[in-house]
Structures are given as structure tokens and as C-alpha cells.
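Project outcomes to date are best conveyed with an example. Our students and postdoctoral researchers have been running inverse folding experiments weekly, and each run begins with a structure described purely in C-alpha cells. The record below, which covers 441 residues, was selected by the lab manager from last quarter's runs and is presented without edits.
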């Protein structure tokens, strides 16, 4: 049977593809620095693991919306940590926040999706699968890759059909940039979204990994129009368990929620019951869980700052991260040098790096950047999270990590950063006309 001309064109997730390529190289004996795949290196807290074990025999289907106990605990979690008014009846549980975002987009027969560039790799493909229009709002290194209210208003004003719904996805601390928004920035964006009646999906999956614990939810400023998504994959280190949450504003009404539940019932049915019961323990956020999160912040903050500082010395533009575990690299200062080696696209730069150094980065094109904008995402989590967490706990304090800690416990990660820096330095030293070329362009 010939179906090819009727099949959708869907690219495989570049993050998953790069992870597979890295594994293949490793099996071939090559040392690889796996900076392309953003998976938490930490295990979930022991109490959460124990809860999963204790409930492994629970095989029943749960309510589509999620078990009442978990929905209430998640509501309490957001009321306590984010200071937003959340009721259990407006919490949805699913096998991952990705499918929840897809369900929200699928609720509309037609809509315009607004995303920043750079933005997480799956937002735009999801919109394309559903036949929605996509409006990409560019950002800049100088603007810290942040969406501005002016740029958002301009994009909304320029929409061809203002009668159809507009949906903005905002992700912070951000993947791929590791940066957040200030309360003033969020308030200004909320004003614009409110003016245009734009629904916002605030993807706050990394909220608990804000390095100073100062994450602020957009829902504080735009409660009537913000859907907050989160889950266990990042701060709880349980990506493969697939547990996502969404808080739906009561102002959207029962019809909207019922539509989401109808989509859920016809697609994923429910999240696994044992995982939901383990999530109850996670979202209770006991003192032990709170300490576990603070230790992660200590490690990720120190390591992110160190990686950024080393890269900046190599003429790679990068902002120090404020949360999560990503750096978004801008190679434009060495674009002239790289052009001498015919490295004129972000894809070419990443392929060369992987082949020559074993450093695996994800090109900026995966995040909506133009190919000639030489950019890439670096996930600085290529270390043994269990061992590093234990070492951090042994310091006996919650103060910043002591001198020498990263060199001792994150040596492989730092070696990869140095390999990347050395690659740039070598290119610069061997390119005879790089300086002249850079001046010319």
C-alpha cells in the first residue's frame, strides 16, 4: 500500500536524535560530552521512589483528570510556592506536561500560536500537527533572549485574522537559555496579554530550579488567562515517569476544561496510578524534599556560572543562567573564524564539534533560530547526579559550594567545556584570514 503522499511531515525530536547519536559514538569508543540532552542527572528523593515501589501493584485506571488526592496536593503546592489561588477542581494530571500543552492547543479548531525564538523544540511542531498558525517573535542576546511587551504587542497587532484565538507559550526559567523573568517584566507581559485577550500557557516546569528560589508565576499577574504547566521531570528528576500537571483558570469556564478532559479521554486516558501516588509524596514538598531541591540549586547554580565564565573567555557569548540547567551559546563573535572552515550554519558548527571533540550540542535551529545565526544549546548535566548530590550534602551546609568542589566532582563536565573552548581557540589560531574576514562582514 502506498500512503507516503498522504503522511504528515513530522521531524523527529532533535533532542532525542542527538542523544541516540551520542550513544552510538560512545559505543564506538569515542569520548562524548553529552551536552545536548536535557535530562536531570539527579534521582528523585528516596521517599518518592519508595512511594512508587509501594504502589507498583496499583494497576487500575484513574479518573481522567487525575486522582482527587493528587489534585488537591498540587493545588496546595501552587498556593504555597507560587501564591496563586488554585482549587483542586481546576488541576489536571497527565502523563507528562508535553501532552497537556498539546491538549490545550488541540482544544482549538483554529488558533495562532506565538512563541519566542529561541523556544523549546516541541511547541512549534505541536502547533503544525494541529494546523494552527505559528508566529515566531524574535529575541536577542542583548535582550537576554526575553520576550518584551513591545514585541508581543507588535506580533499580536500584525495577526492576519484577529478573530481567531491567540495563544502564547512562555517558558521560564527557559529551555534553551536558563533565564527567567523579573516580576516587572511579567507584569508588563500580562498587561499586553490581557489587552489582546491572549491565552498564555506558562510552562514553569523548571520553576523549582530557579537558582535562588525566586521563581514567580505569571499567573500572579494574569490569573484569568494563564494556564500553568509543570510536572516531575525536572525538579524531581523523574522524566521517564511521565507525570505532568496543569492549572486551568476558573475564568475559562467548565466548557474549556471539559474539552480538555474529552481530548484526554480519547488520547492518553490517564496518568499511571502508581506514578500519581508517588507524585503525591513529591508535591507534598516535605522538608526533606525541600532540602533535596536546594541542593540541586546549589550544584546547578555553581556549575552553570563556572561553565558560562569559561565560555565567555573563549569569545562565545552566553549569559550566566538563572535557573534550570541550560546555556544558550552565541558564536557570532567568532563567526568570521568559523566561516574560514565553511562552518556557516549552527548545524555545521555542532556537527564539527561533535566529530572533532565529542562535544554534543543542539543547534539553534532546533529552537527556532535561523541557521546562519550561529547558536546552540548546552545542557550542563553530564555528571553523576547521585554522587554529586551526596558530595554536596556532605558539606554540611546550604551555603555556596566550597572552592574545588566542581573540579573534584564535575570534572567530566568541565573537561567538555574546556574541549569546546579549546576547539574555538584552535580554529582562531589556525585561520589565516579570520580577522580580516570578520572585519569585512
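After processing, the design step wrote out the following sequence:
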Amino acid at each position: 500500500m502506498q500512503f507516503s503522499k498522504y503522511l504528515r511531515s513530522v521531524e523527529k525530536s532533535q533532542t532525542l536524535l542527538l542523544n541516540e547519536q551520542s550513544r552510538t559514538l560512545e559505543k564506538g569508543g569515542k569520548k562524548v560530552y553529552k551536552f545536548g540532552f536535557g535530562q536531570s542527572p539527579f534521582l528523585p528523593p528516596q521517599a518518592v521512589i519508595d512511594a512508587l515501589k509501594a504502589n507498583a501493584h496499583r494497576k487500575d485506571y484513574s479518573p481522567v483528570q487525575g486522582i482527587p488526592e493528587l489534585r488537591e496536593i498540587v493545588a496546595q503546592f501552587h498556593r504555597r510556592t507560587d501564591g496563586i489561588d488554585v482549587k483542586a477542581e481546576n488541576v489536571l494530571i497527565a502523563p507528562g506536561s508535553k501532552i497537556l500543552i498539546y491538549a490545550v492547543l488541540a482544544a482549538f479548531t483554529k488558533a495562532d500560536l506565538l512563541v519566542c525564538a529561541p523556544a523549546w523544540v516541541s511547541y512549534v511542531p505541536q502547533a503544525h500537527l494541529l494546523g494552527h498558525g505559528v508566529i515566531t517573535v524574535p529575541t536577542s542576546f542583548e535582550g537576554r533572549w526575553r520576550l518584551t511587551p513591545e514585541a508581543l504587542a507588535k506580533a499580536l497587532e500584525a495577526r492576519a485574522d484577529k478573530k481567531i484565538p491567540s495563544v502564547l507559550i512562555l517558558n521560564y526559567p527557559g529551555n534553551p537559555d536558563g533565564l527567567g523573568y523579573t516580576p516587572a517584566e511579567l507584569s508588563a507581559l500580562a498587561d499586553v496579554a490581557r489587552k489582546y485577550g491572549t491565552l498564555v500557557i506558562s510552562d514553569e516546569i523548571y520553576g523549582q530550579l530557579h537558582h535562588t528560589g525566586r521563581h514567580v508565576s505569571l499567573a500572579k499577574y494574569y490569573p484569568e488567562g494563564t494556564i500553568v504547566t509543570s510536572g516531575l521531570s525536572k525538579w524531581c528528576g523523574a522524566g521517564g515517569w511521565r507525570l505532568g500537571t496543569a492549572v486551568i483558570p476558573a475564568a475559562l469556564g467548565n466548557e474549556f476544561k471539559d474539552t480538555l478532559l474529552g481530548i484526554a479521554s480519547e488520547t492518553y486516558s490517564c496518568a499511571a496510578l502508581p506514578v500519581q501516588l508517588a507524585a503525591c509524596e513529591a508535591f507534598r514538598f516535605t522538608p526533606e524534599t525541600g532540602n533535596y531541591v536546594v541542593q540541586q540549586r546549589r550544584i546547578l547554580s555553581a556549575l552553570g556560572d563556572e561553565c558560562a565564565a569559561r565560555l565567555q573567555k573563549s569569545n562565545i557569548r552566553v549569559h550566566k543562567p538563572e535557573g534550570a540547567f541550560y546555556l544558550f551559546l552565541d558564536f557570532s563573535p567568532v563567526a568570521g573564524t568559523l566561516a574560514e572552515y565553511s562552518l556557516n550554519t549552527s548545524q555545521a558548527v555542532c556537527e564539527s564539534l561533535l566529530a572533532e571533540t565529542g562535544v554534543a550540542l543542539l543547534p539553534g535551529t532546533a529552537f527556532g533560530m535561523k541557521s546562519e545565526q550561529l547558536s546552540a544549546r548546552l545542557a550542563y548535566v553530564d555528571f553523576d547526579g547521585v554522587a554529586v548530590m551526596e558530595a554536596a550534602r556532605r558539606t554540611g551546609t546550604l551555603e555556596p559550594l566550597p572552592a574545588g568542589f566542581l573540579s573534584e566532582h564535575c570534572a567530566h563536565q568541565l573537561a567538555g567545556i574546556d574541549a569546546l573552548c579549546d576547539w574555538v581557540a584552535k580554529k582562531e589560531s589556525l585561520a589565516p584570514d579570520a580577522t580580516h574576514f570578520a572585519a569585512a562582514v
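DSSP finds 16 helices and twelve strands in the chain. Confidence is low (pLDDT under 50) at residues 434-441. The training component of this project remains on track.
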